[in-house]
Design goal:
It contains seven helices and no strands. The chain is an all-alpha fold. The termini are far apart.
C-alpha cells in the first residue's frame, strides 16, 4: 500500500510540474507571434530598417507614420477603451483607404514605432515631422480625421497630453 501511494504521489507531482512548465512555453510562443506580426506588417508596407538610423527615419509610406501617430495619440488618453481602439481602426481604414486587415497591421506597426520612439509624446512629435517631410500638408487631412474620431470616441474629450500632442502636430506641419 505505501508503494502504491508513493507511485501515485510521484505521478501527481510529475503531472503538476508538466502543467506548470506549459505556461512559459505558451508565453514564449505568444511573444514570438507578436514579433512575427510586427515583422510581417513592416514587410507588407515596405518598411525596411537600416542599422544605424532610427526606425522613424526609415518610413517611406505616409500611412505608416499616420498609424504610429494615431496609436500614440490614443495611448495618451488615461485608459483607452476597446471602443476607442475599434473606432481608431475603422477611421484609419476610411481615411487612408486601406482594408480592415491593413488598418489592423498599421496599428501593430504603429505600436512598435511608438515603443521605438520611447513613448507616445516622442512618437507624435517625431512621426509628425517625418510625415510632413514625406508629403507636407497633403497628409494632414487624413491624420486629423483619425485624431478627431479618437477624440470624439472618448467620454471625457481630449486629455491635456492629447492637446499638447495636437500642438506638436501643428508645429511639425508649420501651421
Amino acid at each position: 500500500m505505501p508503494v502504491i501511494l508513493a507511485i501515485l504521489g510521484a505521478l501527481g507531482a510529475a503531472i503538476f510540474y508538466y502543467i506548470r512548465s506549459r505556461g512559459p512555453i505558451s508565453s514564449g510562443r505568444d511573444l514570438i507571434e507578436a514579433a512575427s506580426e510586427v515583422r510581417l506588417a513592416a514587410r507588407r508596407f515596405g518598411f525596411k530598417r537600416n542599422a544605424n538610423r532610427h526606425p522613424a527615419e526609415d518610413i517611406e509610406d505616409p500611412k505608416v507614420a499616420i498609424g504610429g501617430i494615431a496609436v500614440a495619440f490614443l495611448e495618451m488618453d488615461t485608459l483607452p477603451s476597446q471602443e476607442s481602439h475599434i473606432e481608431m481602426i475603422r477611421e484609419m481604414q476610411n481615411a487612408t483607404h486601406v482594408s480592415l486587415k491593413d488598418a489592423e497591421e498599421l496599428v501593430v506597426l504603429g505600436r512598435w514605432l511608438m515603443s521605438e520612439c520611447g513613448g507616445p509624446e516622442q512618437a507624435v512629435s517625431r512621426l509628425a515631422r517625418k510625415l510632413y517631410k514625406l508629403r507636407e500638408a497633403e497628409q494632414l487631412a487624413p491624420l486629423m480625421q483619425i485624431l478627431n474620431a479618437i477624440g470624439t470616441s472618448s467620454n471625457d474629450g481630449l486629455s491635456d497630453r492629447q492637446r499638447d500632442a495636437l500642438a506638436d502636430i501643428k508645429t511639425a506641419f508649420k501651421l
